[in-house]
Design goal:
2 copies of one chain form a homodimer. Chain A is of the alpha+beta class and 115 residues long. Helix content of chain A is 51%, strand content 12%. At the A-B interface, helix 1, helix 2 and helix 5 of A face helix 1, helix 2 and helix 5 of B. The first copy, chain A, binds a DNA duplex (30 and 30 nucleotides) through helix 4.
Chain lengths: 115, 115
DNA sequence: ATACTATATGCAGTATACTGCATATAGCAC
DNA sequence: GTGCTATATGCAGTATACTGCATATAGTAT
């Protein structure tokens, strides 16, 4: 590690963010389209605090960006690089969907026209 | 983690292999062409046992394959998926090169015609 | 057979990441 | 202001990964 050029250290750190089942799940969901925390919470079936902590890691590394809208905070993938890495590992993205048990506007049908 | 579909667990484990500076360095070197352990040892500047252990992880996950030739063992990247992930993270591969201090045939000039 | 070289493996100590829980903040409605 | 909802943060215990060292194996040469 001591002799490794910076590119490998940084690249590894970036891969590290994708190298986690929950974060990978979150990112796979986000490439369908922006989603709020409650949406991801419903999809992953995990406590809110847990989701927020994974999102923080992704956000601090500029893998995702957040956009506040009232109480809800919508996250989306920050750059196309990450999307291509996901495609390479998981295949093409699935279309956006509504989620049972998610109270956000997108899932209760206030803004999306066709599921 | 408990609810995560298998695809995310497996994908994350695969990303995990790339998420390490030394392994990333090794893989970046291997995409220039096959290389023996002593070659990687010379490039990374790390103990032989250390290199072999990282190679074992990569080999057991079928990220690289080994090919014995007498005393030397040549490793190469197993599939194009990994190469594309490396391209996405590190950019295009550099051309093959000889390495100072590596005693293998490739580096002492017994088989390669042009460096 | 012995000696030497290249590579592999096992184990142990240490560092780092994961994850659950309690709590804090921020925005909206009243 | 209070109360409620959505999200964020801090911390601690546990699990996992990293890495150094000693040693084992396997192939070649003599």
């Amino acid at each position: 590690m001591s002799k490794n050029p910076r590119a490998y250290i940084e690249g590894a750190a970036r891969f590290q963010l994708l190298a986690h089942p929950s974060r990978l799940y979150i990112l796979d969901e986000l490439r369908r389209g922006p989603a709020c925390v409650c949406h991801l919470q419903a999809v992953l079936g995990r406590p809110q605090a847990y989701i927020s902590q994974q999102l923080r890691l992704l956000r601090e590394a500029d893998v995702v960006v957040d956009e506040k809208d009232g109480l809800n905070v919508y996250y989306r993938i920050a750059d196309a690089h990450v999307v291509r890495l996901l495609e390479e590992m998981l295949g093409p993205a699935q279309p956006a969907r509504r989620v049972e048990g998610c109270p956000c506007p997108h899932c209760t049908g206030q803004e999306v026209c066709c599921s």
